[in-house]
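Regression test attached.
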Amino acid sequence: MIKEQYYPQAIEKKWQNIWDEKGCNKTTENSDKPKFYALSMFPYPSGRLHMGHVRNYTITDMIARYKKMQGYNVLHPMGWDSFGLPAENAAINKGAIPSEWTFKNIDYMREQLKQLGLMYDWDREVATCTPEYYKFTQWLFLQFYKKGLAYKKEAAVNWCPKCATVLANEQVIEGKCWRCDSTVEKKYLSQWFLKITEYAEQLLQDLDKLEGWPDRVKIMQKNWIGKSFGTILKFKLAENPEIEIPVYTTRPDTAMGITYVVVAPEYPDMDKIVTDECRAKVKEYQDYAKKASEIERLSTERIKTGVPLGTHIINPLNGNKVPLWTADYALIEYGTGAVMAVPAHDTRDWDFAKKYNLPIIEVIRNPEKTDDSPLTEAYVDEGILVNSGQFNGLKNTDAKKAITDFAEKNGFGYAKTQYRLRDWLISRQRYWGAPIPIVYCEHCGEVPVPEDQLPVLLPTDVDFKAEGESPILTSKTFVETTCPICGGKAKRDCDTMDTFICSSWYYLRYTDPHNDKLPFAKDKANYWMNVDQYVGGIEHAILHLLYSRFFTKAMRDFGLVDIDEPFENLLTQGMVLKDGSKMSKSKGNTVDPDEIFEQYGADTARLFILSDSPPERDFDWSDAGVEGCYKFLNRVWRLVYNVQNQLDITNLTYEYATLPKDAKALARKTHQTIKGVINDINNSYQLNTVVSKTRELVNAISEFSQNKKDYTAEEKAVLNEAIVVMVKILAPVTPHLSEEIWEILGNKTSVFEEKFPEYIEEYTKADAITLVLQINGKTRDKIELPVGVSKEECEKLALESEKVKKFLGDMNVIKVIVVPLKLVNIVAK
RNA sequence: GCCGAUGUGGCGAAAUUGGUAGACGCACCAGACUCAAAAUCUGGCGUGGUUCACCCCACGUGCCGGUUCGAGUCCGGCCAUCGGCACCA
């Protein structure tokens, strides 16, 4: 007996309980089916789900359920990226305890995810902030350490002098502290780095293997790694030839045009290369440079600043003596921290030289320039060398090699491949993260914590508001410890790891989440990996995805897995907007998923979020749109209700060729829909058109059944086939409703045990085609033709068309282009 | 600033990848049902012109230019909006 009304809340609760009780979503490695690993980027437990989450997880769930119906053994897990700044801010602002705050959020959000009807295997849930998890985050750090891939060096942090604390970039607002508005400075601390640069070449090369990734993401990663071929040139200080200043350049061909050299304000040996007269000014400039961010410093728009050091270097190519400056457009992190300046052929150098009246020497001649008139702007393109002594007349592309060879032969330079990618700074002067498992012993120095003593637990006796370099320093139980080697007094490292470390290996933990000996067992990881479909926001295109790729390669080299890349296919979904801008609390344009579930049910929310935009594009939430989807599901329900007396899925056979016209049309629509839906899913998951096509099928079924009272057996079969297909196609999108209708159809098992429908090619073909007739590319007529008309016949019919004749008038036909079964274009004058 | 995207009716979008622009939906308008409203059903719906209607014509995919028999789709140059920029995740 079918209820007349669609009650989504009751249906959803019912099926969520059934799935839970029957353990429908449990996954094991023991299966004859091929495996499929579907993964969403796990959330930070901020408190409540937002629509971005709903979108991400619905897309992945639709894919996971579809693959399950395609006969795969599907792993679809979920967890929590639960270390991070907001928990600590809650501690600072509201006196919350970070772990309690975090787990409360997790509990709430888990319930919300369950309400969305996601096909997760909750037995595999992980949270990065649990000791069971971060034990292995620490363990992995130790593997990096053992292989020499983790090292310490001085690096800058944002320092608020008033609060006397380290700030995250996010806490620096226009150069000021977020809490007290003081100007933020740089402070140098000894911090841990991971040698991602050691993998730069592999990370670059293997991008080619990632055929299932969007090009834009690969291009961004490629540019981020930033491989460049260049030359190191070493310049001696004129005032003291003992001191050498190496520079890195990708334009050695312009080296004869060097008119000054710039070192970064943080240049380590600055003291030795400044004259006493300039020292004070340079110091002042270094202080000024501390206040600018890197983005500001590199901007070509920014007004260039700098001060001379009073010293000079000798250009070994031509013996020229040129001044040495410091300027903040040179970055200490890139190359050698010093750059040669050729204002004639570099726009930043040009601006700087113009401002400070430094000479400009043209050495690359634009082929279109015929005289020695002065340049009016930097010429950065290719040309012929001039003013370059023995290298005059060479093409600049050839001169790169010639000058590098010359430098190498004479001992003042060599070719060098350089990457823009820098080593990964992982130390955070924060509480809510995985402690770095290192102790510092008075006698033995830096000592890694032995693996059997992991985890190094986070202390709880911490003052979050204290001044200093890390809140953990205030713990009485944590800092002081004994040395694992000599048993003497030692101090723990009080920094925690960047949370990106935790999220760089979680996809492997899901394959073996309860292992207490290892992060994961190799055979389980090898069974499930790679992730077949990874879905998440485009904002992670570089950092998270690059770090995860790096971790995978490192773990492979540690012998933990046998894979080179973690994510086979990547889908980067767009943002959820409301009224044209990103949903945010500050704009007050958020929509709470809970309210939508309550009012319309999860199926409506799922349907809407998939239907209006393709996954990769931004999605504009509209209240009217949700309403429309809710009405559609009601229509589906009513459709089934109205034909309840005709429902019979025990006999779905019919003779297609001899069907009456309307039944044939419905059968064709059914098979065209299956074909279209499968194509759309295979074609980079065009889920919005999957929904459109499903709507078209529903429209066709309604139309067919509307005024029909007496069905022949064949008509009934056609109708029931269409309904079965409709339910199965809807199942990945609206799982609860589909299960309910599936049950109404008389089935005792879940619709997800069913195979996704297959189509019969013959049934998708139309009886007739429409031939479009154009004159000079403009459509003038359309004619209906049976399939199988020859090319010649098309042309003949086209020229016979009354409308074509009318438009041709007395023009002469020059050419006729025929696209078989589609279009005829008559070119006429 | 650098790197990467996006731009089509009032709105979200579609277009078998160079071949009928606007499928499907939202909003709106008209009609049916109703005492009435909601819900539901039917029809209309790019702009302008001609036409009572049917029909027909011109224009139209951010802007300018190019390639082509034919361009939303390819090429060059602009403009606008959005994402990332290494300590938010």
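Expected vs. actual: identical. The two ends of chain A are 70 Å apart (CA to CA).
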